[in-house]
Recover the amino acids of this structure.
């Protein structure tokens, strides 16, 4: 899981934790509902834990499994997932944030494609599957910031 933290210069007096699963972030309308919930019920220092949007993790698993069976289908699956993530970004963010997040997204997908050219061990598999939460956290933080609710995203360090 990835976290998003609302950012405020005020000291943290009482912090809440909000958790949103994948179906809560499945499409742009879902993201907008989450921001409205947070606008109404969150404080400046709250933490938000997010899952991968929609079926992102399942689609990453599918891509990994297809790598061993059919390279072309694997490529198509990865490009379909990239398109889904790109459409979320483009539907939700203004020009500056959108451009930056799409550039980062494309770079990460290029890195995933490179990883797919070699055998994938368990550590690499876990690294790949963690991208969905990373994308959700980054997008939600950018969206909240654009909505005058400054936020930053982070991934917990491996234990």
């Amino acid at each position: 899981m990835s976290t998003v933290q609302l950012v405020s210069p005020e000291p943290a007096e009482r912090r809440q934790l909000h958790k949103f699963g994948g179906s809560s972030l499945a499409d742009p309308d879902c993201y907008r509902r989450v921001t409205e919930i947070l606008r109404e019920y969150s404080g400046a220092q709250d933490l938000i834990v997010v899952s991968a949007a929609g079926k992102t993790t399942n689609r990453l698993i599918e891509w990994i499994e297809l790598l061993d069976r059919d390279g072309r289908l694997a490529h198509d699956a990865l490009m379909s997932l990239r398109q889904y993530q790109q459409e979320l970004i483009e539907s939700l963010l203004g020009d500056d944030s959108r451009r930056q997040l799409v550039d980062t997204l494309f770079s990460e997908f290029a890195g995933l494609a490179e990883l797919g050219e070699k055998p994938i061990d368990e550590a690499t598999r876990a690294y790949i599957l963690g991208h969905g939460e990373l994308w959700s956290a980054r997008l939600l933080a950018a969206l909240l910031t654009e909505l005058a609710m400054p936020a930053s995203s982070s991934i917990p360090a491996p234990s």
Remarks:
- The first strand starts at residue 2 and ends at 6.
- The mean pLDDT is 92.
- The chain has six helices and four strands.
